[in-house]
Amino acid sequence: MRVLLAEDELQLCEQIKKLLSAEGRVVDVTNNGTDALHMGATEPYDMIILDIGLPERDGISVLREWRSAGVKTPVLILTARDGWSERVDGLDAGADDYMTKPFHMPELAARVRAILRRQSGHLNPVIEMGDVSLDTRNGRVSVDGIPVDLTAQEIAVLTYLAHNIGRMVSRTELSEHIYEYDGDRDSNTIAVFINRLRKKLGSDLITTVRGRGYMIDSA
């Protein structure tokens, strides 16, 4: 799952990116509102973490412009400790959730997971796909209760498909959600990851929609 992080406090930015990357998220970072506006409007993010106090363009105006343009990506806003009015403005502008600085990193990670679950219609943090289980809290995967080791990119592919159970996902869409903004998005390598997942998790888990993409059937 791919996240845009728009935050100008560099140390905090690095901490958040490290946290989310450890959970298997692909994190793109920007430190100003101008780039945030462009990236959020043109890239297919699964969610956005948006600091209100960005330079060049403040977060509230960026969020309002996204919503006016029809961008529906879930947004979690970050606000200053005493900025209760900013929280109200952010929610009214279209934010899905907010956190007040300073905050605890585990809570941020939990809120990100909750937003992503709601976005895909999953209420339980553990996604069951037949005998395969994916714990979205830690990226752990098991088959019939037996843990299976997956690479970071294999987990990224499985996680995106699991959050879109019952829907066909193209190779292009998959590549857009598992590679960073300036990464080498080679959609041909998706087939390699799919084959590895089938070998580790069972050949029936992921269905190929010939000439179109892949899907995990709903139960």
TrEMBL record:
One GO molecular-function entry: phosphorelay response regulator activity
Residue stretches making up the Response regulatory domain: 2-116
Any one biological process term the GO annotation gives: regulation of DNA-templated transcription
Keyword DNA-binding: yes
Cellular component GO terms held in the UniProt record: cytosol; protein-DNA complex
Residue positions, PTM 4-aspartylphosphate: 51
Superkingdom as given in the UniProt entry: Bacteria
DNA-binding region: 124-218
Domain OmpR/PhoB-type per the UniProt entry, residue ranges: 124-218
Keywords attached to this entry: DNA-binding, Phosphoprotein, Transcription, Transcription regulation, Two-component regulatory system
Pfam families according to UniProt: Response_reg, Trans_reg_C
Xref: PANTHER family: REGULATOR OF RPOS (PTHR48111), RESPONSE REGULATOR PROTEIN CARR (PTHR48111:SF37)
Protein name: Transcriptional regulatory protein QseB
Species lineage: Bacteria, Pseudomonadati, Pseudomonadota, Alphaproteobacteria, Rhodobacterales
Recorded name of the encoding gene: qseB
